[in-house]
Design a protein that fits this description.
Radius of gyration: 19 Å
Number of helices: 1
Helix content: under 10%
Distance between the termini: 32 Å
Order of helices and strands: HEEEEEEEEEEEEEEEEEEE
Number of strands: 19
Low-confidence stretches: 1-22
Structural class: mainly beta
Largest sheet: 10 strands, antiparallel
Mean pLDDT: 91
Strand content: over 45%
Length: 277
Amino acid sequence: MNLKPLAVVILSSGLVACGGGSTSSGGASVDVDISDSLKGLSQEPALASSAVSEGDSVSLNSVLTANLSEDSYMLFSFTAESDGEVAVLLNSAAEDFDLYVTSNDLDLSSERLSSEEQLVFSVTSGETYSIEVSAYYGSGDFTVKLVEANRTSLGLSNNEYYVSLPYETEVLCDTSDYNFDGEYQVVINWLGGYLKDGSEKSNFNSASGNTFTILTNYSDSEPEYDYSYSEEYTLQLTVNPESGVVSGTETGTSTEINGSDVDDCAISTTYVGRIVL
């Protein structure tokens, strides 16, 4: 079983939160004219369907099906025939399956608290990419769509853009300090005024020029164990409508109370990413 990292369980910017309640209300929008050249392919190509097994080598533009029992995983791979952008979309009725893609210089994960996962990444001709589906919780059939990245497969509306946001995070707590990095992949609708991570949607609270701000707070408590946790964040992202670069910062604080022990943290994240589609 793959353990879910802190960034999944206590995720900033209101993209998702487990337990308790997360809030982000707004109504602001960014009236920015994003270059049409950044939208990428519109239509889904023709797809072939086949069953997949552990260790198989598969082809791009395929719909792959298999079954996993809880606490197990399956690995398969494909070799890119040309440079480009590829999307991998996992779907299952099981409670929580996760998705991973790795290569010599790539290490991506999609670990939402569901079994609808997706990743988009750049491939290099001749490079082999490993895909892992992990049954974190639950058992059952799953489907993986491996396809040239396109707006139809990803379900993007006219004003929605798929955005890759690599990040670096610093956490300074009373009890310990640490750093971690990774990549969020989200959908942003500047004109509609929202950011989505899977089914979780956060509205912009304010906007100025090409920059929007989202304010988020989250809390959870278990009185029977004398435990509580709370956090709040301010996310600001700016888009360059010609290059598609999306960059910004996120700052926040958290407090964890466990009996008589209190741990306060200051959390700072830097994002430099891009519009993929």
